[in-house]
Design a protein that fits this description.
By secondary structure, the protein is an all-alpha fold. It contains 5 helices and no strands.
């Protein structure tokens, strides 16, 4: 099979990557500019603008790399939108924002991790449960053990089972 040397096909193939890269760069620029209004601090004593600026720089680099080197797999029109995945991710974000204080760290991370893992059609219920359990364990290790934050592990909705 001969290689396709059609510049029209190459341009059509990379257009979604260019648009995604441009969106990443625009978001990174906006948040990076907003982060410069806060004190940066130093690496050992970070100010409130340090992490947002760092994440903005990383997102900008990702956007540049995607725009420069990204390639879609085909020039065909994209298939149907992944509505199930998008809906599950949005639902998990709303649940996290609405119920994280009531449920506590471990239940809300488990629930949101489970729903988000189910967003991929490649994950089964068993794999989604294992992903959710691993995320909950990781959050406990990072936030409670590592950083020593005073987040309730189990929230007040569980009554006497509330754990700090």
């Amino acid at each position: 099979m001969a290689a396709n040397n059609n510049p029209q096909a190459e341009r059509a193939r990379t257009r979604p990557d260019l648009v995604a890269g441009a969106v990443f760069i625009a978001i990174a620029s906006a948040f990076g500019w907003g982060a410069t209004r806060y004190e940066m601090g130093q690496l050992v004593a970070m100010g409130p603008g340090f992490v947002p600026l760092s994440l903005s720089i990383m997102l900008g680099i990702l956007g540049i790399a995607l725009a420069a080197f990204g390639r879609s797999e085909s020039a065909d029109a994209p298939g149907s939108a992944p509505w199930r995945g998008g809906a599950l991710v949005c639902i998990s974000l709303v649940l996290f924002g609405a119920y994280s204080r009531d449920l506590g760290l471990l239940p809300i991370v488990f629930l949101c991790g489970f729903l988000t893992a189910l967003a991929s059609p490649q994950n089964s219920v068993v794999s989604a449960l294992s992903i959710a359990a691993a995320l909950s364990l990781l959050c406990w290790l990072v936030f409670k053990v590592g950083l020593g934050l005073s987040l309730p592990l189990i929230g007040p909705v569980f009554g006497s089972y509330q754990i700090y």
